[in-house]
Amino acid sequence: MNFATPKFNKAVEDLKALCGTHTQLFRYGQFYVTRRTMDDLLGQITADLSANLRFALTPVQLANTIAFFKAKLSKAAMDVDVAGIMDMLNLIEVNGDMAAIRAMFGATKQDAAHVRSEFNDVWSNTNISSAPLVSGSPASLGKAQAASKLEKDRCFQVLRAFAAKLLKKRGVAPLPPTVILSELAVAGATPKQTAPGVPGSHDVAEVIARETLVYAQPATLGKAAVRMRAALDAGGFVHCGVLSGARHERSVFPNPEHHILVFAYDTIDGEDAFLFWDPDTAHSNISATTWGSGFGVLFSRTGRLCTGVDDADLADIERTKDVSNEGDHLRDTRRHSYQVYSLQTLPFAASLKVHVKVLSQPAHSSVDDMLNRTVGYFAMNGLEILELSHEIIETPGTELDRFQMLYVGGDPDGEASADITDLHTTLREPRDFGVTPDATEVVIAFVDSMVPAQRGCSVHPLEQPGVIISSKHATEWTLAHEIARVLGLLSSVAPGDLTYRSTESIGEEVPELSDDNLEALLTSPLVEA
Q: Among 83, 225, 288, 434, whose Cα sits 20 to 30 Å from the Cα of 54?
């Protein structure tokens, strides 16, 4: 099949051109800091070896040694053969002259903080810089591994940030209402196990089941495809939440497994096709094209919106747990198997910028699940939530530990307590994190618990908008509820409403939002139109 149609070739060229010389944006994507650090690590090793007089006098040995390190560092950061590298350094070291290179394969307590700072430097703004930002910390394998841990779950944030950069560069205005599309479970999509795991069929012991999305209203997929094309014609993008088809745990609304960005459409062999950029660039790299890492194609046909040319192609995926190509097509391991679960057109007419500070991990729902629900819910109502920074804070032994049990007072509409004021003021102070919230940007703080006990609190100091979430008591919809409250939405007496006093009453159904609250949402002074 010819994926590389002239229209798709041009669309890829145009997207790359928007990034200019900063090609790492589309090539490295979600693992930007990880791969930049690995580049810098190899560069520093090369520089150290080249500056060593012994190697300078033996060009062949220098070239061979650099080639050795290049091969070893071509692996994923978590898979680098450190023992093999240490053996090589033992062989070539004279009088301790490899000590500096040895040190590059260790880890420090500052690695995670350096990684968070650099990640947010790249993705917390809508500008495309002409080149990668200069790192403020030395490259090391420990830093690359810390980056890999941070970035593995940041596909949503990176996709929205990259889309914002591209849209600003193109000068795209908000889309007209007639083409806006926001489907948190498109065509009533639900995942269903369609093939069990087959233990013993691979070298790895555990083989996971295959999941296929079942669309309750398959006819509406065609209508969604029409709206997708209209949004692309208007200069916008389509954000797709997807499943890979290989899952240990079933995904449930509204939390897709991964996210991709559709930016062009065409017809391939009579099938409607959509070209996308994948933040996890290593998993979308069609071998039959010259596009390079990060690009793939969805097919829209009766009852299906996925990367499979047909159902047999969709089912032909790697389902061995923890292998590097899990979810890839077996016959073409650089073409990931995605099925579309949710759809949102970009850009939005209104946006709210937030900063996430996690002092304590939630007990009943993950931070990412709460964020996904919040972003998806408000997108349905015309508001984009932009996550500018995401910081996980280790509080033991620091001044922030005193905020884990926070006195918030008894009046949900009263003034901020001294504890609330101190927490928000402290979290907004310049830190080694790289991003300082503006006065109209909302700080979301996850703490252990509050006194008196409650799930969340939207009371905040003047000109320091923020919400506090109790990690011990919050439910899946607590964050969305508190964001609504900080935007000025009124309390509701209906248990099914988002702004009802207790989010515990919200079940699996999507909560309601009254017309008055919807108007207040989009006219809040914190919302940027």
A: 83
